[in-house]
Design a protein that fits this description.
The protein is of the alpha+beta class and about 375 residues long. It contains 14 helices and 14 strands. Strands 1, 4, 5, 6, 7, 8, 9, 10, 11 and 12 form a 10-stranded mixed beta sheet that branches.
Length: about 375
């Protein structure tokens, strides 16, 4: 076998080729890291947003979008008294009728962006168990409470949505009186209104949904909820588990994920083919060198290993640069989408994809030009110019 130092010295024989190989592999690895992180981030926030103990009642025909749903206000008390197994705290049933509405909000700085608004009463805190108040208090009339990531959703500085500031919805100005968190869920990108206020501002006399929380993950309670919708046909309700609802949303966003992969693959393919052309040209110029090494006793396998080592050094350097770029540019980056935000995280699986990609680029990507370089017979290779 050739010494490792031979591959290391050859790496710097052509600085321009080295820069192209390192840069190309860095681009490919960074794109794939970004694609995996985007998909995992969206999957994570949607799967964490739904609880197996929560059941949502929505209007029939609106099972895929709570925002389009309409539920009569009387259904809230009917569900609370008709379904067994609802969790209670201090004698209060964990049932929350809510209005969910998407509309433009203007911040104190004058920027206007779409936001997801949720009209709630205090019973919502019994249902959404991940919500924790960080500052201030629950909103009353003419007041709102904002999630800790709402400023990322609106694309403004966090100071513009601090307690004491105000936002404008339509012609109404509302004071921010609370900041809440709901780690890893879409809730912490929302703005919570007093339910009566939001009903007045949106001119509606119905709810969007009713969410109730079960004391346990009881199959019978889910059956009771479905039975309630059949018995009360006048309310025109459908019952769905909250985690199932967000699973369906995940499927709804599948085309976006596919487009992410397609875009990454197209750009990566261009970089890979460019790298292959560079390697073909570089190795073609070394046919006589490889033949000379064969003539003094080195086998084609040994030469192939040396070429792969040389390529791996370049691609793994590019991979390292991609990880550094991903750490500073992607890790912790909050990405807004229609119903909330999600955070890109350099998880072990994301890092593994990057490492595997770098290794494959340095091995499989090197084999075609290396085989072409070593394929000519020894006499023919020695006569090549």
């Amino acid at each position: 076998m050739l010494p490792f130092s031979y591959a290391l010295r050859n790496l710097f024989r052509d600085p321009s080729r080295l820069a192209q190989t390192v840069g190309g592999s860095a681009i490919v690895v960074l794109l794939l890291i970004a694609a995996v992180a985007l998909n995992q981030g969206m999957n994570s926030v949607l799967s964490a947003s739904g609880s197996t103990r929560n059941i949502i009642f929505i209007g029939k025909g609106s099972e895929e979008s709570i925002e389009r749903s309409e539920v009569g206000i009387e259904a809230e008390s009917a569900a609370a008294t008709s379904i067994a197994g609802i969790e209670t705290k201090l004698g209060v049933a964990a049932v929350s009728g809510e209005i969910i509405y998407q509309a433009p909000i203007k911040t104190a700085g004058g920027k206007e962006e779409q936001a997801l608004l949720r009209g709630v009463l205090e019973s919502a805190l019994l249902v959404h168990s991940t919500v924790r108040l960080l500052d201030g208090h629950f909103p009353g009339p003419d007041q709102v409470m904002v999630g800790s990531l709402t400023h990322r959703k609106l694309g403004v500085d966090a100071s513009e949505l601090a307690v004491g500031k105000s936002i404008r919805f339509g012609d109404e100005e509302l004071e921010i009186v609370g900041i809440f968190t709901a780690p890893g869920t879409v809730l912490e990108s929302e703005i919570w209104f007093d339910r009566n206020d939001l009903a007045t501002l949106t001119q509606r006399d119905s709810l969007s949904s009713i969410t109730l929380r079960l004391a346990t993950e009881d199959v019978d309670s889910m059956s009771d909820a479905e039975l309630f919708t059949f018995q009360r046909n006048d309310l025109e309700l459908s019952a769905i588990r909250e985690d199932t609802y967000y699973e369906k949303l995940n499927i709804f966003y599948q085309p976006i994920k596919i487009m992410t992969w397609v875009t990454a693959a197209l750009v990566a393919a261009g970089a890979v083919f460019g790298g292959l052309n560079t390697l073909y040209a570089a190795f073609a110029a070394r046919i006589r060198e490889m033949a000379t090494l064969q003539s003094i006793g080195y086998t084609r396998v040994a030469l192939m290993v040396s070429l792969v080592q040389e390529s791996l050094l370049a691609t793994m350097t590019g991979t390292l640069l991609a990880f550094v770029a991903a750490y500073f540019l992607l890790d912790g980056l909050t990405v807004p989408f229609s119903i909330g935000t999600f955070t890109l995280t350099m998880t072990p699986s994301v890092i593994s994809v990057g490492l595997i990609t770098g290794i494959l680029l340095g091995t499989i990507g090197t084999l075609p030009p290396a085989i072409r370089c070593l394929l000519p017979s020894l006499p023919k290779a020695l006569r090549s110019s």
